């Protein structure tokens, strides 16, 4: 099969990715092989490829095939797999496998399992024609979702859903979403479904326009002034979600949030000044459980959220990542082998 392979992490300008002919995967016990129909291009992929996370042990092996928001059809089924068959349309999220027996796995927080495998980071991912998957972490797709729209549900979709769940929204509440990219534009829609008042915060005009089209109650141009101060002056918000990879956005989100409110952070950041007297909660958010992933697919299958996606051929993975790096993407780029 053809695959996009990373051998030595390095900035994109050094051309670290190669398209190679590699051995087709064969499924072991509990595994399946997927013919990839689409694979989303994630900022996490960019971090790994450029070597930002080498110190944290990512990638865990080289060479590695990146990509962790993958959909396609099952072409082979290994021993002990009874719930999936050849021809089924399925998807795989970053959580490639979990141990199933630790305290996190047993309590519904399996994304925190400390011996999990991560698609495209510790095992080969979906920038390829075929991918090996763990059948217990593969999800059957609703027929109503085409591959290109379904793939981003498996990272931005579940990330957005998990973050919105932590914000404890309701119709009486308000939420500001800082950063309306791949994850933020889906979070905005999940937040809207709770009935909360939604405020989209971005520096990019095309992203603010996208937010308006997706039904944001208000859009705030962060390039025109400090969004934290503007929102605080207006009485503040009950919750803030941060997906913009910027310490300044985190600081603004904390400032914008009312006393007693919740700040959910989906990026690595330095937390700035944090006055205890306001009793705010800061919480990190990573993906979500398998049950949450099924809920995401059901909601998207009913057409209640949609991913704005643009497709690229697999051979242009580097170009797609370049656009993401330069901040030129509203919504999600998806590779189609
Ligand atoms: Zn991702
Ligand atoms: Zn576990």
Detailed description of the structure:
This protein has 337 residues and is of the alpha/beta class. The protein has 2 domains: 2-154 and 287-336, Medium-chain alcohol dehydrogenases, catalytic domain (Quinone Oxidoreductase, Chain A, domain 1), CATH 3.90.180; 158-284, Rossmann fold (3-Layer(aba) Sandwich). 25% of the residues lie in helices and 27% in strands. Strands 3, 4, 5, 8, 9, 16 and 17 form a 7-stranded mixed β-sheet that branches. A 6-stranded parallel β-sheet has the order 12-11-10-13-14-15, sandwiched between helices. The chain has a two-stranded antiparallel ribbon with strand order 1-2. It is globular. The termini are close together. The structure holds zinc ion (2 copies). One zinc ion binds at residues 42, 44, 68-69, 94, 155.
Secondary structure elements and pairings:
Blueprint: E1 2-6, E2 17-21, E3 31-41, H1 43-50, E4 70-77, E5 89-92, E6 95-97, H2 103-106, E7 117-118, E8 130-134, E9 138-140, H3 147-150, H4 156-166, E10 174-178, H5 184-193, E11 197-202, H6 205-213, E12 218-221, H7 227-233, E13 237-242, H8 247-256, E14 257-265, E15 281-284, H9 290-301, E16 309-313, H10 317-325, E17 332-336
Parallel strand pairs: 10-11, 10-13, 11-12, 13-14, 14-15, 16-17
Antiparallel strand pairs: 1-2, 3-4, 3-8, 3-17, 4-5, 5-9, 6-7
The chain binds zinc ion (2 copies).
How would you spell out the order of helices and strands? EEEHEEEHEEEHHEHEHEHEHEEHEHE
Low-confidence stretches: none
The number of helical runs is 10
**Helix coverage percent of residues?**
10-25%
Report the end-to-end length measured between terminal Cα atoms: 10 Å
The number of domains: 2
Count of beta strands: 17
Sketch the major β-sheet: 7 strands, mixed
User: What is the CA-atom radius of gyration, in angstroms?
Assistant: 20 Å
CATH architectural arrangement of the largest domain? Alpha-Beta Complex
CATH class call of the largest domain: Alpha Beta
Query: What percent strand?
Result: 25-35%
């Amino acid at each position: 099969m053809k695959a996009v392979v990373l051998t030595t992490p390095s900035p994109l300008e050094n051309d670290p990715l190669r398209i190679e002919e590699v051995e087709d995967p064969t499924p072991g016990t509990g595994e399946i092989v997927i013919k990839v129909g689409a694979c989303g291009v994630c900022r996490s992929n960019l971090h790994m490829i450029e070597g930002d996370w080498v110190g944290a042990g990512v990638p865990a092996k080289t060479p590695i095939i990146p990509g962790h928001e993958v959909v396609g059809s099952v072409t082979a089924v290994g021993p002990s797999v009874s719930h999936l068959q050849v021809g089924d349309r399925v998807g795989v999220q970053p959580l490639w496998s979990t141990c199933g027996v630790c305290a996190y796995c047993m309590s519904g927080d399996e994304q925190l399992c400390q011996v999990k495998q991560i698609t495209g980071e510790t095992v080969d991912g979906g920038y390829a024609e075929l991918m090996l998957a763990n059948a217990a972490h593969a999800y059957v797709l609703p027929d109503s979702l085409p591959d290109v729209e379904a793939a981003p549900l498996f990272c931005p979709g579940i990330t957005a859903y998990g973050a919105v769940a932590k914000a404890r929204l309701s119709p009486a509440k308000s939420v500001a979403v800082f950063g309306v990219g791949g994850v933020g534009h889906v979070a905005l829609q999940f937040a809207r479904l709770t009935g909360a008042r939604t405020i989209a915060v971005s520096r990019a005009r095309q992203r603010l326009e996208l937010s308006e089209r997706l039904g944001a109650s208000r859009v705030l141009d962060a390039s025109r002034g400090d969004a934290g101060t503007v929102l605080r002056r207006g009485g503040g918000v009950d919750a803030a979600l941060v997906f913009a990879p910027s310490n300044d956005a985190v600081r603004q989100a904390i400032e914008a949030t009312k006393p007693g409110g919740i700040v959910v952070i989906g990026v690595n950041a330095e937390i700035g000044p944090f006055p205890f007297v306001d009793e705010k909660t800061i919480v990190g958010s990573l993906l979500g459980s398998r049950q949450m992933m099924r809920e995401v697919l059901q909601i998207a299958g009913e057409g209640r959220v949609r991913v704005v996606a643009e497709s690229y051929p697999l051979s242009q993975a580097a170009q797609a990542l370049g656009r993401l790096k330069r901040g030129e993407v509203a919504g999600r780029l998806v590779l189609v082998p």
